[in-house]
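Example 3.2
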Amino acid sequence: MPELLVDPETNALLISKGIPFEASHRHFSHALAIHPLGTLHVDQGEKEKAIVRATVRQLIDEGSSAWVGYSFTWAASLAARAGYPDDAARLLTDFERAFVSRNGFHVNGDQTNSGLSNFTYRPFTLEGNFLFMDAIHEMYLQSFTGTLHIFPAVPDDWQDCAFEDLRAEGGFLVSASRGKGETASISITAIEDATLRLQNPFPGREPEANLPIQINGELLTAELKAGQTLKLE
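Structure, written as tokens:
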């Protein structure tokens, strides 16, 4: 693949050659490599991490005046992948309070007229709600690189939270709980025979496990048979 075009002044992805992202817009197509494609991500190295974070920071900081409802949830997914959990949570809250009708429909325009968007109309579309669920998933669990990251983008004020049976790439069902701001327990079930690669969700210590695991730095691996469940604490 050819190299992605990067603005030498901001270190953010360009829209096209010589065309930087300079104004609020409802679409973030220039950031497709970050989400949903995942071909550019923070685990690739410091250079790539800096580009991801600069790109997402720029589109958030440009403001939401030309956004519609789905832009908020799309930006939340991008923020989760860039490592901006507080932004992700705030954007989801803004979406829920201003762009969703009483029956749960996403209506694109700002129904509160509070300045979150210049658009105040009510066209119903589906993608905003789908992206809301995706953003929550990205905050709780990421696996698109082949390595599972649990609670990778949870804000500090989510001190106590949990999820159950979220699907991870590679053929896994994942459940986890968090208490007092720290990961408490994890359960990973293999849907098929698979090698599990997991970023250690218990930083600085080796977790207790009910099955054999291998540890290399902060990477945990395990060979799981279909139906086996690895439990970590």
